Amino acid sequence: MLAACGGTSSSSATVTATVNTLPPSTNPGAVYVFNQVVKDFEQAYPHEHIVGKNDPYDPTTYFAKLAANQLEDGVQSYFTEPPLLISRHAVADITSLAKSWPSFKDYIPSIASIVTRGDRVYGIPVNGYVLGIFYNRKLFSGAGLDPDKPPTTWEEFRGYARQLTSSKVAGFAETSTANQGGWHFTNWMYTAGGDLESSDGTKAVFNSSQGVSVLNFLKAMRFTDRSMTQQQLLTQADTLQLLATGKVAMVVMAPDQLNALQAQYQANLKDFGIGPMPQNGGNAALTGGNLWVFNPKSAPEVIKAAFDYVIYSNFNLEVVERSLAQQAAAGQAVGAPTAVLFQGAFQQQLSALYRKYATVPLENYTAFMNAQLQLRPEPRNQTQKMYATLDPVMQAILTDPKADPEALLNQAAHQFQQILDQSSSS
Protein backbone atom coordinates (compact mmCIF):
# COMPACT_ATOMS: atom_id res chain seq x y z
CA MET A 1 0.00 0.00 0.00
CA LEU A 2 1.34 3.43 -0.85
CA ALA A 3 1.62 5.96 1.95
CA ALA A 4 -1.36 8.20 2.36
CA CYS A 5 0.79 11.29 2.20
CA GLY A 6 3.01 10.72 -0.78
CA GLY A 7 5.39 7.99 0.33
CA THR A 8 6.79 5.66 -2.30
CA SER A 9 7.16 1.92 -2.11
CA SER A 10 9.92 1.53 -4.69
CA SER A 11 12.98 0.07 -3.00
CA SER A 12 15.35 1.70 -5.54
CA ALA A 13 13.86 5.17 -5.26
CA THR A 14 13.93 7.69 -2.45
CA VAL A 15 11.25 7.04 0.15
CA THR A 16 9.31 10.15 1.17
CA ALA A 17 7.72 10.47 4.60
CA THR A 18 5.74 13.41 5.94
CA VAL A 19 5.87 14.65 9.54
CA ASN A 20 3.62 17.17 11.31
CA THR A 21 6.23 19.18 13.23
CA LEU A 22 7.32 21.96 10.87
CA PRO A 23 7.32 25.04 13.15
CA PRO A 24 5.10 28.00 12.26
CA SER A 25 6.53 30.70 10.00
CA THR A 26 6.18 33.13 12.91
CA ASN A 27 9.19 31.38 14.49
CA PRO A 28 11.84 31.60 11.74
CA GLY A 29 14.64 30.47 14.04
CA ALA A 30 12.83 27.20 14.75
CA VAL A 31 12.02 26.74 11.05
CA TYR A 32 15.71 27.17 10.22
CA VAL A 33 16.75 24.57 12.78
CA PHE A 34 14.07 22.13 11.55
CA ASN A 35 15.26 22.47 7.96
CA GLN A 36 18.89 22.00 8.97
CA VAL A 37 18.08 18.78 10.82
CA VAL A 38 16.13 17.47 7.84
CA LYS A 39 19.04 18.36 5.53
CA ASP A 40 21.50 16.52 7.77
CA PHE A 41 19.17 13.54 8.07
CA GLU A 42 18.85 13.21 4.30
CA GLN A 43 22.63 13.23 3.97
CA ALA A 44 22.87 10.44 6.55
CA TYR A 45 19.93 8.55 4.98
CA PRO A 46 20.27 9.33 1.24
CA HIS A 47 17.29 7.16 0.26
CA GLU A 48 14.89 8.76 2.77
CA HIS A 49 13.28 12.17 2.29
CA ILE A 50 11.31 14.13 4.91
CA VAL A 51 8.59 16.67 4.18
CA GLY A 52 7.51 18.81 7.12
CA LYS A 53 3.96 20.08 7.63
CA ASN A 54 2.86 22.68 10.15
CA ASP A 55 -0.01 20.54 11.39
CA PRO A 56 -0.01 20.14 15.20
CA TYR A 57 -1.86 17.12 16.54
CA ASP A 58 -5.57 17.72 17.08
CA PRO A 59 -7.58 14.94 18.78
CA THR A 60 -10.78 16.24 17.19
CA THR A 61 -9.53 15.76 13.62
CA TYR A 62 -7.04 12.87 13.81
CA PHE A 63 -9.46 10.07 12.93
CA ALA A 64 -11.07 12.05 10.12
CA LYS A 65 -7.66 12.78 8.60
CA LEU A 66 -6.73 9.11 8.88
CA ALA A 67 -9.96 8.04 7.18
CA ALA A 68 -9.50 10.63 4.41
CA ASN A 69 -5.86 9.65 3.78
CA GLN A 70 -4.74 13.13 4.86
CA LEU A 71 -2.70 12.11 7.92
CA GLU A 72 1.06 12.52 7.93
CA ASP A 73 3.23 9.40 8.07
CA GLY A 74 4.76 10.46 11.38
CA VAL A 75 2.64 12.39 13.88
CA GLN A 76 3.83 13.97 17.10
CA SER A 77 1.04 13.55 19.64
CA TYR A 78 0.47 13.60 23.43
CA PHE A 79 1.15 11.10 26.20
CA THR A 80 -2.62 10.86 26.74
CA GLU A 81 -3.47 9.51 23.32
CA PRO A 82 -2.10 5.94 22.84
CA PRO A 83 -4.91 4.03 24.64
CA LEU A 84 -7.58 5.41 22.32
CA LEU A 85 -5.43 5.32 19.18
CA ILE A 86 -4.31 1.74 19.83
CA SER A 87 -7.81 0.51 20.68
CA ARG A 88 -9.11 1.93 17.39
CA HIS A 89 -6.19 0.56 15.34
CA ALA A 90 -5.30 4.11 14.36
CA VAL A 91 -1.54 3.80 14.84
CA ALA A 92 1.06 1.47 13.37
CA ASP A 93 2.71 -1.35 15.32
CA ILE A 94 6.41 -0.41 15.33
CA THR A 95 7.68 -3.17 17.62
CA SER A 96 10.50 -4.38 15.38
CA LEU A 97 11.72 -0.84 14.67
CA ALA A 98 11.57 0.24 18.31
CA LYS A 99 13.36 -2.80 19.63
CA SER A 100 16.09 -2.47 17.02
CA TRP A 101 16.96 0.93 18.54
CA PRO A 102 19.40 0.22 21.41
CA SER A 103 18.17 3.01 23.67
CA PHE A 104 14.55 1.87 23.70
CA LYS A 105 15.38 -0.46 26.58
CA ASP A 106 16.60 2.56 28.61
CA TYR A 107 13.20 4.23 28.87
CA ILE A 108 11.95 4.53 32.44
CA PRO A 109 9.33 1.74 32.69
CA SER A 110 6.47 4.15 33.35
CA ILE A 111 7.40 6.06 30.19
CA ALA A 112 7.71 2.90 28.07
CA SER A 113 4.31 1.73 29.33
CA ILE A 114 2.66 4.74 27.65
CA VAL A 115 3.38 3.32 24.18
CA THR A 116 3.34 -0.43 24.84
CA ARG A 117 0.58 -3.01 25.08
CA GLY A 118 1.85 -6.38 26.15
CA ASP A 119 5.01 -6.92 24.14
CA ARG A 120 3.95 -4.62 21.27
CA VAL A 121 5.18 -1.05 20.77
CA TYR A 122 3.13 1.72 19.15
CA GLY A 123 5.09 4.93 19.63
CA ILE A 124 8.26 6.76 20.69
CA PRO A 125 8.14 9.21 23.64
CA VAL A 126 10.40 12.19 22.91
CA ASN A 127 9.96 14.76 25.67
CA GLY A 128 8.16 15.37 28.91
CA TYR A 129 7.03 18.34 30.95
CA VAL A 130 5.81 19.21 34.43
CA LEU A 131 3.32 22.04 34.94
CA GLY A 132 4.37 24.89 37.19
CA ILE A 133 3.86 28.61 37.74
CA PHE A 134 5.40 31.09 35.30
CA TYR A 135 5.75 34.52 36.89
CA ASN A 136 7.04 38.01 36.18
CA ARG A 137 10.02 38.66 38.44
CA LYS A 138 9.85 42.43 37.96
CA LEU A 139 6.22 42.50 39.08
CA PHE A 140 7.16 40.37 42.10
CA SER A 141 9.86 42.84 43.13
CA GLY A 142 7.55 45.80 42.52
CA ALA A 143 4.93 44.25 44.80
CA GLY A 144 7.45 43.63 47.57
CA LEU A 145 7.71 39.87 46.89
CA ASP A 146 10.98 37.95 46.64
CA PRO A 147 11.31 36.79 43.00
CA ASP A 148 13.46 33.88 44.15
CA LYS A 149 10.69 32.60 46.44
CA PRO A 150 7.54 31.78 44.44
CA PRO A 151 4.46 30.65 46.41
CA THR A 152 4.40 27.00 47.46
CA THR A 153 0.88 26.62 48.95
CA TRP A 154 -2.60 27.57 47.78
CA GLU A 155 -2.83 30.08 50.62
CA GLU A 156 0.47 31.70 49.64
CA PHE A 157 -0.50 31.69 45.96
CA ARG A 158 -3.80 33.39 46.68
CA GLY A 159 -2.03 35.99 48.83
CA TYR A 160 0.62 36.64 46.17
CA ALA A 161 -2.07 37.08 43.51
CA ARG A 162 -3.85 39.67 45.65
CA GLN A 163 -0.60 41.52 46.30
CA LEU A 164 0.34 41.50 42.60
CA THR A 165 -3.03 42.80 41.40
CA SER A 166 -3.31 46.47 40.47
CA SER A 167 -5.37 48.62 38.13
CA LYS A 168 -3.13 47.51 35.24
CA VAL A 169 -2.09 43.99 36.26
CA ALA A 170 -4.02 40.86 37.24
CA GLY A 171 -2.32 38.55 39.70
CA PHE A 172 -3.31 35.37 37.84
CA ALA A 173 -4.90 34.14 34.61
CA GLU A 174 -6.27 30.65 34.01
CA THR A 175 -7.31 28.68 30.92
CA SER A 176 -10.82 27.33 30.34
CA THR A 177 -11.25 26.53 26.64
CA ALA A 178 -9.87 24.16 23.95
CA ASN A 179 -9.70 21.32 26.54
CA GLN A 180 -7.17 23.38 28.50
CA GLY A 181 -9.60 24.15 31.31
CA GLY A 182 -9.97 20.44 32.00
CA TRP A 183 -6.21 19.94 31.66
CA HIS A 184 -5.43 22.61 34.25
CA PHE A 185 -8.29 21.48 36.51
CA THR A 186 -6.61 18.05 36.56
CA ASN A 187 -3.33 19.67 37.56
CA TRP A 188 -4.99 21.60 40.41
CA MET A 189 -6.71 18.38 41.50
CA TYR A 190 -3.35 16.69 41.83
CA THR A 191 -2.10 19.53 44.05
CA ALA A 192 -5.11 18.83 46.29
CA GLY A 193 -4.57 15.06 46.35
CA GLY A 194 -7.59 14.28 44.18
CA ASP A 195 -8.16 11.83 41.34
CA LEU A 196 -10.07 12.19 38.08
CA GLU A 197 -10.72 8.55 37.24
CA SER A 198 -10.73 5.30 39.22
CA SER A 199 -7.51 3.32 39.07
CA ASP A 200 -8.91 1.10 36.32
CA GLY A 201 -10.14 4.09 34.32
CA THR A 202 -13.79 3.01 34.36
CA LYS A 203 -15.28 5.55 36.80
CA ALA A 204 -15.36 9.34 36.87
CA VAL A 205 -14.38 10.40 40.40
CA PHE A 206 -13.57 14.10 40.02
CA ASN A 207 -16.85 15.17 41.72
CA SER A 208 -15.10 14.85 45.07
CA SER A 209 -14.34 17.13 47.99
CA GLN A 210 -10.97 17.89 46.39
CA GLY A 211 -12.67 18.83 43.13
CA VAL A 212 -15.04 21.16 44.93
CA SER A 213 -12.10 22.72 46.81
CA VAL A 214 -10.31 23.46 43.51
CA LEU A 215 -13.33 25.24 42.08
CA ASN A 216 -14.01 27.17 45.29
CA PHE A 217 -10.36 28.24 45.37
CA LEU A 218 -10.45 29.59 41.79
CA LYS A 219 -13.90 31.12 42.29
CA ALA A 220 -12.69 32.98 45.37
CA MET A 221 -9.69 34.36 43.50
CA ARG A 222 -11.93 35.49 40.65
CA PHE A 223 -14.85 37.04 42.49
CA THR A 224 -13.83 37.59 46.15
CA ASP A 225 -10.22 38.68 45.69
CA ARG A 226 -10.67 39.97 42.13
CA SER A 227 -7.07 38.92 41.52
CA MET A 228 -7.74 37.24 38.19
CA THR A 229 -8.35 38.70 34.73
CA GLN A 230 -11.82 40.01 33.95
CA GLN A 231 -11.32 38.57 30.48
CA GLN A 232 -12.02 34.84 30.56
CA LEU A 233 -12.46 31.87 28.18
CA LEU A 234 -8.70 31.92 27.71
CA THR A 235 -6.32 29.46 26.06
CA GLN A 236 -2.65 28.95 26.90
CA ALA A 237 -1.75 31.18 23.95
CA ASP A 238 -3.85 33.92 25.55
CA THR A 239 -2.33 33.57 29.01
CA LEU A 240 1.19 33.50 27.52
CA GLN A 241 0.51 36.78 25.73
CA LEU A 242 -0.89 38.34 28.90
CA LEU A 243 2.20 37.26 30.82
CA ALA A 244 4.59 38.44 28.11
CA THR A 245 2.97 41.87 27.87
CA GLY A 246 2.97 42.48 31.62
CA LYS A 247 -0.80 42.32 32.01
CA VAL A 248 -0.70 39.25 34.26
CA ALA A 249 1.84 38.33 36.93
CA MET A 250 1.35 34.53 37.16
CA VAL A 251 0.07 31.73 34.91
CA VAL A 252 0.16 27.92 34.92
CA MET A 253 2.46 26.64 32.20
CA ALA A 254 5.16 24.12 31.31
CA PRO A 255 8.81 25.12 30.75
CA ASP A 256 8.61 24.28 27.04
CA GLN A 257 6.73 27.57 26.61
CA LEU A 258 9.88 29.56 27.30
CA ASN A 259 10.80 29.41 23.63
CA ALA A 260 7.44 30.84 22.56
CA LEU A 261 7.68 33.50 25.27
CA GLN A 262 10.99 34.63 23.81
CA ALA A 263 10.41 34.04 20.09
CA GLN A 264 6.85 35.35 19.75
CA TYR A 265 7.06 38.26 22.17
CA GLN A 266 10.79 39.07 22.26
CA ALA A 267 10.55 38.70 26.02
CA ASN A 268 13.72 38.90 28.08
CA LEU A 269 13.69 35.55 29.86
CA LYS A 270 15.70 37.01 32.74
CA ASP A 271 12.50 38.85 33.69
CA PHE A 272 10.58 35.60 34.26
CA GLY A 273 10.75 32.76 36.75
CA ILE A 274 9.22 29.31 37.11
CA GLY A 275 8.06 27.92 40.42
CA PRO A 276 6.49 24.60 41.40
CA MET A 277 2.72 24.16 41.55
CA PRO A 278 1.37 25.51 44.86
CA GLN A 279 0.12 22.66 47.00
CA ASN A 280 -2.92 21.92 49.15
CA GLY A 281 -2.23 18.43 50.46
CA GLY A 282 -1.41 16.61 47.23
CA ASN A 283 2.36 17.22 46.98
CA ALA A 284 2.02 16.55 43.26
CA ALA A 285 1.90 18.14 39.81
CA LEU A 286 0.73 17.00 36.42
CA THR A 287 3.32 15.59 34.06
CA GLY A 288 2.77 14.92 30.40
CA GLY A 289 4.65 15.06 27.17
CA ASN A 290 4.93 14.36 23.50
CA LEU A 291 5.43 11.14 21.60
CA TRP A 292 5.48 10.04 17.99
CA VAL A 293 3.01 7.65 16.42
CA PHE A 294 2.91 6.45 12.85
CA ASN A 295 0.21 6.20 10.21
CA PRO A 296 -1.05 2.61 9.99
CA LYS A 297 -1.95 3.15 6.33
CA SER A 298 1.62 4.07 5.36
CA ALA A 299 3.88 1.53 3.67
CA PRO A 300 6.43 -0.18 5.97
CA GLU A 301 9.39 1.54 4.32
CA VAL A 302 7.67 4.92 4.71
CA ILE A 303 7.05 4.26 8.41
CA LYS A 304 10.72 3.28 8.70
CA ALA A 305 11.78 6.58 7.12
CA ALA A 306 9.62 8.55 9.55
CA PHE A 307 10.88 6.41 12.46
CA ASP A 308 14.51 6.90 11.39
CA TYR A 309 13.95 10.66 11.30
CA VAL A 310 12.38 10.68 14.78
CA ILE A 311 15.27 8.77 16.33
CA TYR A 312 17.90 10.74 14.39
CA SER A 313 16.48 14.17 15.22
CA ASN A 314 15.69 13.51 18.88
CA PHE A 315 18.23 11.00 20.17
CA ASN A 316 21.36 10.83 18.00
CA LEU A 317 23.77 12.52 20.42
CA GLU A 318 25.84 14.17 17.69
CA VAL A 319 22.68 15.49 16.05
CA VAL A 320 21.25 16.63 19.38
CA GLU A 321 24.43 18.56 20.12
CA ARG A 322 24.55 20.12 16.65
CA SER A 323 20.85 20.99 16.85
CA LEU A 324 21.21 22.56 20.29
CA ALA A 325 24.16 24.62 19.08
CA GLN A 326 22.10 25.76 16.07
CA GLN A 327 19.14 26.55 18.31
CA ALA A 328 21.31 28.63 20.61
CA ALA A 329 22.91 30.45 17.64
CA ALA A 330 19.46 31.07 16.14
CA GLY A 331 18.29 32.73 19.34
CA GLN A 332 16.09 29.89 20.54
CA ALA A 333 15.50 29.18 24.24
CA VAL A 334 17.65 26.14 25.04
CA GLY A 335 17.90 24.17 28.27
CA ALA A 336 14.42 24.57 29.77
CA PRO A 337 13.78 22.03 32.56
CA THR A 338 12.17 18.84 31.23
CA ALA A 339 10.91 15.60 32.70
CA VAL A 340 13.38 12.70 32.60
CA LEU A 341 12.50 9.91 30.13
CA PHE A 342 15.43 7.53 30.39
CA GLN A 343 17.52 5.90 33.09
CA GLY A 344 21.26 5.41 33.11
CA ALA A 345 24.08 6.77 30.97
CA PHE A 346 21.96 7.78 27.98
CA GLN A 347 19.89 10.22 30.05
CA GLN A 348 23.05 11.60 31.65
CA GLN A 349 24.52 12.27 28.21
CA LEU A 350 21.35 14.02 27.01
CA SER A 351 21.10 16.14 30.16
CA ALA A 352 24.74 17.18 29.89
CA LEU A 353 24.20 18.45 26.35
CA TYR A 354 21.18 20.53 27.35
CA ARG A 355 23.15 22.07 30.20
CA LYS A 356 26.12 22.77 27.91
CA TYR A 357 24.07 24.80 25.44
CA ALA A 358 21.56 26.33 27.83
CA THR A 359 20.58 29.89 26.95
CA VAL A 360 17.80 30.21 29.52
CA PRO A 361 18.52 31.63 33.00
CA LEU A 362 18.40 28.35 34.93
CA GLU A 363 18.93 30.22 38.20
CA ASN A 364 15.40 31.62 37.77
CA TYR A 365 13.94 28.11 37.92
CA THR A 366 15.75 26.83 41.01
CA ALA A 367 12.58 26.45 43.10
CA PHE A 368 10.89 24.54 40.27
CA MET A 369 13.83 22.20 39.65
CA ASN A 370 14.40 21.51 43.36
CA ALA A 371 10.76 20.83 44.22
CA GLN A 372 10.19 17.31 45.55
CA LEU A 373 6.75 16.73 44.07
CA GLN A 374 5.19 13.50 42.86
CA LEU A 375 4.83 13.70 39.10
CA ARG A 376 1.40 12.37 38.23
CA PRO A 377 0.51 11.49 34.61
CA GLU A 378 -2.71 12.57 33.00
CA PRO A 379 -5.63 10.12 33.24
CA ARG A 380 -5.34 7.70 30.33
CA ASN A 381 -8.95 6.79 29.49
CA GLN A 382 -10.77 9.19 27.12
CA THR A 383 -8.58 12.00 28.44
CA GLN A 384 -9.35 14.66 25.87
CA LYS A 385 -13.10 14.00 26.15
CA MET A 386 -12.79 14.33 29.92
CA TYR A 387 -11.04 17.67 29.47
CA ALA A 388 -13.77 18.79 27.06
CA THR A 389 -16.40 17.84 29.66
CA LEU A 390 -14.60 19.86 32.34
CA ASP A 391 -14.02 22.99 30.24
CA PRO A 392 -17.60 24.28 30.79
CA VAL A 393 -17.19 23.70 34.53
CA MET A 394 -14.10 25.91 34.60
CA GLN A 395 -15.81 28.47 32.38
CA ALA A 396 -18.81 28.68 34.70
CA ILE A 397 -16.68 29.08 37.83
CA LEU A 398 -14.64 31.86 36.23
CA THR A 399 -17.56 33.79 34.72
CA ASP A 400 -20.53 33.30 37.08
CA PRO A 401 -20.28 34.30 40.76
CA LYS A 402 -23.39 32.22 41.48
CA ALA A 403 -21.99 29.01 39.95
CA ASP A 404 -22.31 25.95 42.22
CA PRO A 405 -19.07 23.89 42.19
CA GLU A 406 -20.61 20.69 43.53
CA ALA A 407 -23.57 20.75 41.13
CA LEU A 408 -21.32 21.49 38.17
CA LEU A 409 -18.97 18.63 39.00
CA ASN A 410 -21.80 16.17 39.58
CA GLN A 411 -23.30 17.02 36.20
CA ALA A 412 -19.93 16.76 34.44
CA ALA A 413 -19.12 13.43 36.15
CA HIS A 414 -22.48 12.05 34.99
CA GLN A 415 -21.78 13.15 31.42
CA PHE A 416 -18.26 11.76 31.40
CA GLN A 417 -19.37 8.49 32.98
CA GLN A 418 -21.63 7.94 29.99
CA ILE A 419 -18.61 8.38 27.71
CA LEU A 420 -16.59 5.89 29.77
CA ASP A 421 -19.44 3.37 29.76
CA GLN A 422 -19.91 3.70 26.03
CA SER A 423 -16.20 3.25 25.32
CA SER A 424 -15.99 0.13 27.49
CA SER A 425 -18.93 -1.48 25.71
CA SER A 426 -17.82 -0.65 22.16
Automatic annotation (TrEMBL):
Give the superkingdom in one word: Bacteria
Which InterPro entries does the record match to this protein? Answer: Bact_solute-bd_prot1, SBP
What Gene3D superfamilies does the annotation carry?
A: Periplasmic binding protein-like II
Q: Name one Pfam family in it.
A: SBP_bac_1
PANTHER family for the chain: ARABINOSE-BINDING PROTEIN-RELATED (PTHR43649), SUGAR-BINDING LIPOPROTEIN (PTHR43649:SF16)
**What is the protein name given in its UniProt record?**
Sugar ABC transporter substrate-binding protein
Specify the taxonomic lineage: Bacteria, Bacillati, Chloroflexota, Ktedonobacteria, Thermogemmatisporales
